[in-house]
Design a protein that fits this description.
This is Cytochrome P450. One of its GO terms (molecular function) is oxidoreductase activity, acting on paired donors, with incorporation or reduction of molecular oxygen, reduced flavin or flavoprotein as one donor, and incorporation of one atom of oxygen. It comes from Carlito syrichta (Philippine tarsier). Its main location: endoplasmic reticulum. The protein contains 17 helices and 11 strands. The strands form 4 sheets. A 5-stranded mixed sheet has the order 1-2-7-4-3. The termini are far apart. A hairpin with a 2-residue loop joins strand 1 and strand 2. The protein is an alpha+beta fold. The longest helix is centred in the middle third of the chain and has 25 residues. The protein has a single domain, classed as Cytochrome P450 (Cytochrome p450).
Length: 489
């Protein structure tokens, strides 16, 4: 028989089986748009702004619905009630990590972000313990942030109020803070290795937020073709090599009775469990866990700051009110401290609104259910991918009137006091919430107040002409590049 005819018959059978199998599975899952064979609903989704497409589908199918990414059913949770019920009320059942094949090529199921089961539980528990020992959320880490903030101020002064792109300098601070926790070391801003690391962080975040990566995660075979994913893998491998060099240095100087940083703590644990064949504390896991913490502790905070300054350039009256509050509470003669935050409700509201408005991780990292469950009136099989729309929570129009408008009033009551909101979930929620939330919130407050204490932000164009639309909004919201002048206050 002609090979072409055999191929056509095989493809036809595959399509028919896909249709039958998909129809059978869809009877138990939440409703959703009818998928096409093989490609599922992929061609119906806006790959440049997936959260917008999901919001449109939620209007038609409700807060819990199913889309097919390729042949893979994915349950979407849209809105505060559905997200809270899953991630908080039933956190254990929804605590599995979904697959991102492009990244898994590197992580191999290790670390704290993309791992599952016992590896995830032990690594996360250990990492949180060590981070607390290293001063996370305490005065010691606050001191480190203040020291880096002072270095940032000096670097910004050297711009001499000339136009500059703040991306690099805004990344230096969180990168050095987390470096001091992981490596017990900070880098000079002019260090070439340091500059390369920051370049990799920026590139990785941009690449991960492109439609192409979304397609590669949906159709993993695309990874065998040329594409920007290869640049991502090259960058990550370079970062891993840097981490391996640091680990080697630590091994040569390790004192098991005097751990200096995260790597030391991990190496000591490895030594204690070296005869345990089932131990999760291996060299491979150390490398990936360090990369997880290093990446998460750098790029998310720096991108939020970068987006935050852009929003303040767009609305100079907001930054003027923050500066007024800084002058009143902190003054010019000392550095801002975390204890000042309770007396600075407007500044606190602005920082919360920056995080809410920028919606840095619109759909969070995918979850899976860890067992067969009944969720509301639907049956969701073990291992089903779950997408949680954080956009639908952060931009809920009942909780935040006019959610598409940047308005610090979303977090202020009628008396001007700071107002908390359960809908504030930029770090996700539940058992998979960001482990570094406390550090990130501390950095955002101390860095933003320090910058505005010393400088007035001057745009290069009329504020009304500033474009604040993200370049991409897939895995992350990538702000547009811009320049500004830091005018000494």
């Amino acid at each position: 028989m002609d090979p072409f005819i055999i191929l056509v018959i095989c493809l036809s059978c595959l399509i028919l089986f896909s249709l039958w199998n998909g129809s059978h599975a869809r009877r138990k899952l939440p409703p959703g748009p009818t998928p096409f064979p093989i490609v599922g609903n992929t061609i119906q989704l806006n790959t440049k702004d997936l959260s917008k497409t999901l919001s449109m589908l939620a209007k038609e199918y409700g807060p819990v619905f199913t889309v097919y990414l390729g042949m893979k059913p994915t349950v979407v949770l849209h809105g505060y009630e559905a997200v809270k019920e899953a991630l908080i009320d039933r956190g254990e059942e929804f605590s599995g990590r979904g697959t991102l094949p492009v990244v898994e090529k590197v992580t191999q199921g290790l670390g704290v972000v993309f791992s599952n089961g016992e590896i995830w539980k032990q690594t996360r528990r250990f990492s949180l313990m060590v981070l607390r020992n290293m001063g996370m959320g305490k005065k010691t880490i606050e001191d480190r942030i203040q020291e880096e903030a002072s270095c940032l101020v000096e670097a910004l002064k050297k711009t001499n109020a000339s136009p500059c792109d703040p991306a690099f300098l805004l990344t230096c601070v969180p990168c050095n803070v987390i470096s001091s926790v992981i490596f017990q070391d900070r880098f000079d801003y002019g260090d070439q290795k340091f500059q390369n690391l920051i370049k990799y962080f920026h590139e990785n975040f941009k690449i991960l937020s492109t439609p192409w990566i979304q397609l590669c995660n949906t159709f993993p075979f695309l990874q065998y073709f040329p594409g920007i994913h290869n640049k991502l893998l090259k960058n990550i491998n370079a970062q891993r090599q840097f981490i391996l060099e640091k680990i080697k240095e630590h091994q040569e100087t390790l004192d098991i009775n005097n751990p200096r940083d995260f790597i030391d703590y991990f190496l000591i644990r490895m030594e204690k469990e070296k005869h345990n064949q089932q131990s999760e504390f291996t060299m491979d896991n150390l490398v990936i866990t360090t990369w997880d913490i290093f990446s998460a502790g750098t790029e998310t905070t720096s991108t939020t700051l970068r987006y935050g300054l852009l929003l303040l350039l767009k609305q100079p009256e907001v930054s003027a009110k923050v500066q007024e509050e800084i002058d009143h509470v902190v003054g010019r003669d000392r550095s801002p401290r975390m204890q000042d935050r309770s007396r600075m409700p407007y500044t606190d509201a602005v920082i919360h609104e920056i995080q809410r408005y920028t919606d840095l991780v619109p759909i969070s990292v995918p979850h899976t259910v860890t067992q067969d469950i009944q969720f509301r009136e639907y049956l969701i099989p073990k291992g089903t991918t779950i997408l949680t729309s954080l956009t639908s929570v952060l931009h809920d129009d009942k909780e935040f009137p006019n959610p598409e408008k940047f308005d610090p009033g979303h977090f202020l009551d009628k008396s001007g006091n700071f107002k908390k909101s359960d809908y504030f979930m930029p770090f996700s929620a539940g058992k998979r919430a960001c482990a570094g939330e406390g550090l990130a919130r501390m950095e955002l407050f101390l860095l933003l107040t320090t910058i505005l204490q010393h400088f007035t932000l001057k745009p290069l164009v009329d504020p009304k002409d500033i474009d604040i639309t993200p370049v991409n909004k897939v895995l992350g919201s990538v702000p547009p590049s811009y320049e500004l002048c830091f005018i000494p206050a």
